[in-house]
């Protein structure tokens, strides 16, 4: 049989899958998987169910149902003061993943460079490379993940097509500061380029932090594609409903790729997400408060058993330092060890790096789980730590 595409073939089984399989085999509590274990808001699901029965189920418009596109524009105004024309500046996609893929396919010409921060979400590099792009990686390191201005500046050049910014950043649980965003904005302007902004965790920020989309900074309105996800904002990851906001010139380019990728997204889910985005502020503050309580529960639990957590400003991930319990092996070894001998599974942060020799002492816990699951995981890990 002839080979498939070489770039994608290079990517083997990910460590996430390996750990999940190991977790299944050993019946361990899996805090590696990055999704909530509840079922999303009842009222949003009810709208989806009703729309399935009462509304058309044939292909909706290519850019999305008007209700959702209007809701995306209104959401941009309500939370960030953005004036968005829903007809020319919004588009619905099948998850943020499709938004990202559409951006890469539509914007990258072979040989173009794309500036990306490491650690990075797993679909970025294969998709950028498959689109012909050359990733220019800028490494952020735990535990404080500060933006290295010089290295970022050095990554930009005449071939830079755009910067890809995931803010808040998975798995670092970092929210880029206003000053860091300004550095990025200045470089985007200086190099007359633009930014693809993966902001799927925009509503999961803690300790009173407020999300600042890059698109809201001076000079950025026509240079950013802002991507959101109902999967994260409504804890409905299986729905794969994403949405983007961008100036008409950028949106039109990306729509060309979307048109040939999925073309559209399930109409009843779009209508339900439109309802969800229009929910009153208490829904959004409630989501943050719930997630913050879970973060605190895990953070305090880990601290009490001697596992040192890193700063967690947002997302539903908390990283912890494996050296704090005297573990001298790699983060991958640690994940294997605790799956087999503590009955808890996490993922190694090094799996989110691609550059040569990247190693970390950190593992990522997902805390968007029932309290009882978090408590049980901490108790099991505590027993393992106590055994030395
Ligand atoms: N970007 C990041 C940073 C993510 O963590 C995820 C989901 N884990 C996605 C994009 C994908 O979002 P969606 O499920 O809407 O495709």
Per CATH, the class of the largest domain reads: Alpha Beta
Largest sheet: 7 strands, mixed
Query: How large, in whole angstroms, is the Cα Rg?
Result: 21 Å
Q: Please state the second-level CATH architecture of the largest domain.
A: 3-Layer(aba) Sandwich
Q: What's the total number of strands?
A: 13
Summed up, the domain count is: 2
CATH fold-level label of the largest domain: Aspartate Aminotransferase, domain 2
Average pLDDT confidence is 96
**What's the N-to-C terminus distance?**
51 Å
% residues in beta strands:
5-15%
* Largest sheet, spatial ordering of strands: 2-8-7-6-5-3-4
Sketch the topology as an H/E string, one letter per element.
HHEHHHEHEHEHEHEEHEHHHEEHEEEH
Shape: globular
Name the CATH superfamily assignment of the largest domain.
Type I PLP-dependent aspartate aminotransferase-like (Major domain)
Cofactors, ions, other ligands: 4'-deoxy-4'-aminopyridoxal-5'-phosphate
Figure out the total of helices: 15
Structural category is alpha/beta
Q: Which consecutive residue ranges, at least 5 long each, have pLDDT under 50?
A: none
Q: Helix coverage percent of residues?
A: 40-55%
